[in-house]
Amino acid sequence: MSAVASLHSSSAEAHTRVAQERSAQEARTLVAQERRKQPLRAAVQSALELFFRDLDGHQAEGVYDMVIGQVEQAMLESIMQHTRSNQTRAAEVLGINRSTLRKKLKQHGLL
Fold it and tell me: Smallest Cα–Cα separation from 102: which of 10, 88, 36, 59?
């Protein structure tokens, strides 16, 4: 193969690789955009997939309470940090009354 033909071949291969990388990046971007539309849902689904995979054939029990408890606690911790522990503001952000917030904070050992 001549030097010119070799150069053209290398150039074509490089263009193909760039196109493939660009296509893969575009696919990753689309997946990320979909996740951003419902990031909490995607995170929970991903965590549950790992949970069930890790069971390794064992039966799952109490999944509902486990998920709700963990998500609720994480949400409460984040909201309390966001509101600088202002319970009145946290209750407003959550759309619940302050006494319900206090009850939930106590349930999760956050008060």
Answer: 88
- 60-111 adopts what CATH topology? Arc Repressor Mutant, subunit A (1.10.10)
**Which spans in 38-107 are helix H?**
39-54, 63-82, 87-94, 98-107
More reliable by pLDDT, 31 or 103 = 103
What is the C-alpha separation between 34 and 52, in angstroms, rounded?
23
Q: Which residues contact 96 (CB under 8 A, 6 or more apart)?
A: 104
DSSP string, 31-47: HHHHHHHSHHHHHHHHH
Give the model's pLDDT for residue 19: 75
